[in-house]
Write a structure and sequence with these properties.
The chain is an alpha/beta fold. The chain is built from 18 helices and ten strands. Helix content is 53%, strand content 12%. The longest helix has 22 residues. The chain is elongated. This is KAD8 kinase. InterPro entries: Adenylat/UMP-CMP_kin, P-loop_NTPase.
């Protein structure tokens, strides 16, 4: 699905080579996360913690300007030095350049505080930068204004720290921290006003992959909710055929659960023991081979069970509607037999 998205966005001249390169470079399971929210909501704390936990690359405006040596860094810094706003298009190009590096492709990325408005979100999309999860932190404006007073800035790296929520462990960094210039309540109120004006359009674009999380609670609670969300997989619209396997000791309720699931989702319910009895009763070739074992109370050999099972699971109704199986495998050898026959539950 990811590869198809990329093909549609980039429309390469040589699609086959593009797909080969995609498979070589991209790790489709790598995180692609945006952490958004108003000023002082804790975006940096959450992004840094996620990077540590998921071994992903954190990307923020500060890291792009002060920690990276990219082709466009110089141009962006020139705007900063002239105290001019860096254009949205330049930010989008900087991010695209950084995300095309091997570490981001292999390990995944956490993009912090971007996009802030609809134009930035559209620019990311048109560059093929599509997050899988968007986390939005929120809290009451009064809480955010109060929190803002604890912000501290590292003038060397432009990294933001907080006296309560994110104090650096390095004593040298601690010594050089300063209060940001824009700490006044009035400036903070203006920033919040702008955020509330711009955010609904961003929400509209990412609503299918977005989760809002209350930032006004203990930080460990916030982090655990964020982690739970970013580790979920979104439902795909692609056709899906369930292949369900129930394991458990006798009396644990396998047959009842299988029957309920088969009834609810219209999948084929298969009990291995019942299947063997039906094969014998129907006098099929394989049933005839299994009959002496069943009549004498001996276990039917695994290879024979496997043939009967494979024949049933490859029937049209199972292939179309999916299946739920219980009573097999009962041990590692049977499990391996199942895999060798390419019967893989999903």
């Amino acid at each position: 699905q990811n590869m198809l998205e990329e093909l549609l966005i980039h429309k390469p001249d040589d699609p086959i080579q593009y797909m080969i390169n995609h498979l070589k470079q991209n790790n489709d399971d790598a995180p692609r996360i945006c952490v958004l929210g108003p000023p002082a909501s804790g975006k940096t704390t959450v992004a840094m913690w996620l990077c540590k936990h998921l071994d992903a690359v954190r990307i923020s405006r500060e890291t792009l300007l002060f920690k990276e040596i990219l082709a466009l860094t110089k141009e962006a810094k020139a705007y900063k030095e002239r105290k001019q706003e860096i254009p949205n298009a330049l930010w989008a190009n900087l991010i695209q350049e950084r995300l095309s590096n091997v570490d981001c492709m292999k390990q995944g990325w956490i993009l912090e505080g971007f996009p802030e408005n609809q134009e930035q979100a559209w620019m990311l999309q048109s560059s093929g930068i599509i997050p899988r999860h968007v986390v939005v932190l929120y809290a009451a404006d009064t809480v955010l204004i109060e929190r803002n007073s604890g912000k501290r800035l590292d003038p060397f790296t432009e990294e933001v720290y907080h006296t309560t929520f994110g104090w650096p462990s390095d004593p040298l960094v601690q010594q050089r921290l300063v209060k940001p210039e824009d700490l006044s309540e009035q400036k903070m109120s203006n920033k919040l006003l702008e955020y509330h004006r711009n955010f609904p359009a961003v929400f509209q674009i990412y609503q299918k992959v977005l989760k809002s999380i209350n930032a006004d609670q203990p930080s460990m609670d916030v982090l655990s909710q964020v982690l739970t969300y970013v580790q979920t997989r979104h439902r795909s619209a692609a056709p899906f055929t369930p292949r369900i396997l129930f394991c458990g000791p006798p009396g644990s309720g396998k047959s009842l659960q299988a029957a309920l699931i088969a009834q609810k989702y219209g999948v084929v319910n298969i009990c291995c023991g019942q299947l063997l009895k039906e094969a014998v009763a129907d006098k099929t070739k394989l049933g005839e081979l299994a009959k002496p074992y069943i009549d004498n109370g001996y276990p039917v050999p695994d290879n024979l069970v496997m043939k009967i099972l494979a024949e049933r699971l490859n029937a049209l109704d199972c292939m179309t509607n999916g299946w739920v199986l219980y009573g097999f495998p009962r041990d590692i050898e049977q499990g391996e037999e199942l895999q060798k026959s390419h019967i893989i539950p999903n």
